[in-house]
């Protein structure tokens, strides 16, 4: 596979940043190509060289950011010292650092009706990591619990806390909110299904 032209990478980065900047004042449905190109300081022709239309652009960017988020916050550790069995876990300090850098995206993800498909994508990705985490050595697999209950609790509790944290001006430091949330997730339910060490904080 050939290398991507640096000019293409630069243009896409500018459009992605323009998208994030516009989320401060626009919903997904209100955003338009003129706003995006003006904010990014590129022409409409340049935009159409990279994306078919606004919907394709939004879909691409939303999916890219979700992918970037998980690449940033997931780490793999050996299961019971066995390097051949790597299990994922989420580092909450990195979660809140990422959210703090892109708060508008996560407020949109949680609150907008037009973001429903992306909430589903976010939630499905998280559930995949949950299953991978409990794949080894769990006598009560998380599959035995209703998927929608586990998914809704994990996704909406995490995003709900993040949403409140952003709306309150991020008054707590990343490491502090991460430590508090990590403690919240050490509940009887999480112990029972093998998730007590899925959400971790670097400070505890």
Automatic annotation (TrEMBL):
GO terms for molecular function: DNA binding. It comes from the Bacteria. This is HTH tetR-type domain-containing protein. The lineage of its organism: Bacteria, Bacillati, Bacillota, Bacilli, Lactobacillales. It comes from Vagococcus teuberi. PROSITE patterns: HTH_TETR_2. Residues 32-51 bind DNA. Coiled coil: none annotated. InterPro entries: Homeodomain-like_sf, HTH-type_Tx_Regulator, HTH_TetR, TetR_C_Firmicutes. Keywords: DNA-binding. Residues 9-69 form the HTH tetR-type domain.
């Amino acid at each position: 596979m050939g290398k991507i032209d640096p000019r293409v990478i630069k243009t896409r980065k500018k459009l992605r940043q323009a998208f994030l900047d516009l989320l401060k004042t626009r919903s997904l449905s209100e955003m338009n190509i003129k706003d995006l190109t003006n904010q990014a300081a590129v022409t409409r022709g340049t935009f159409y060289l990279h994306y078919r239309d606004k919907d394709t652009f939004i879909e691409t960017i939303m999916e890219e950011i979700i992918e970037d988020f998980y690449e940033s916050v997931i780490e793999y550790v050996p299961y019971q010292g066995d390097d051949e069995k790597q299990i994922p876990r989420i580092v909450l300090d990195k979660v809140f650092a990422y959210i703090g850098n892109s708060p508008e995206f996560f407020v949109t993800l949680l609150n907008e009706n037009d973001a429903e498909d992306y909430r589903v994508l976010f939630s499905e990705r998280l559930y995949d990591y949950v299953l991978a985490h409990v794949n080894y050595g769990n006598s009560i697999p998380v599959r035995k619990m209703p998927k929608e209950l586990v998914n809704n609790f994990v996704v909406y509790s995490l995003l709900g806390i993040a949403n409140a944290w952003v709306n309150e001006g991020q008054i707590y430091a990343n490491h502090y909110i991460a430590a508090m949330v990590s403690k919240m997730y050490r509940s009887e339910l999480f112990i029972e299904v093998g998730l007590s060490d899925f959400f971790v904080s670097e400070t505890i």
